[in-house]
Amino acid sequence: MASEIGEQALRVIWHTGEVSLTALFSMIKRVLENKEPIKHGKQSLKKLNRQNQKLETVSVDKEDLKAFKRELQRHCVDFSIKKEREGVYHAYFKSRDLERIYSGLEKCVHDYTIGKRRPLHEIVIEAEKKATAFKNKEYAWEIGEKHTNREQAR
Questions:
Q1: pLDDT-based confidence at 154, cuts 50/70/90?
Q2: pTM score over 0.85
Q3: Burial 72-85 (b: 16+ CB within 10 A, else e)
Q4: Cα 14 to the chain's mean position, in Å?
Q5: CA dist 132 → 120, 122, 124 (Å)
Q6: Which of 1, 40, 92, 103 could lock 80 by a disulfide, CB 3.0 to 4.6 Å apart?
Q7: Tell me: the pLDDT tens digits for 114-153?
């Protein structure tokens, strides 16, 4: 009788272990199926907040935004860009990436001081000035030519 009770207890324990194992296996399988792959780079602010990390922010001008994004991508920083007002953007990123952010900012500043990269609007303004100056010189030359032709005709 004691051996029968012992065998029943052993069967119950074994059956409980099997049920627990299958339940645990199915829960792990569901979690792995629903898990999104880890992305680095530009993300929405909502996804950045879901990572439960402290966020830092930096203000960036519109002219520098493209170069800043490029540097952040190079340094594999998770970030989000939000427009604050016209021409001013805020870049949010994890505080653990602070050193990589500073190295990216230093590279942007270094490139601009060397003149390697200039904002596109500066290049366009310079080209417009040169074009108007050239047009004015041609116009002045044409006017001068007309005046000399008139004087010769007299």
A1: low
A2: no
A3: beebebbbbbeeee
A4: 53
A5: 18, 16, 12
A6: 92
A7: 666 667 778 788 888 888 887 776 655 555 555 555 455 5
CB contact burial 122-142 (16+ within 10 A = b; e otherwise): eeeeeeeeeeeeeeeeeeeee
DSSP for residue 35? P
The pair of structure tokens assigned to 64 is 């520098």
* Residue type for position 113: T
Domain 40-117 belongs in CATH node 3.30.70: yes
Domain edges within the chain: 1-35, 40-117, 120-154
Burial environment of residue 91 by CB neighbours within 10 A (0 to 12, 13 to 18, 19 or more)? buried
Q: Which residues pair with 123 in a beta bridge?
A: none
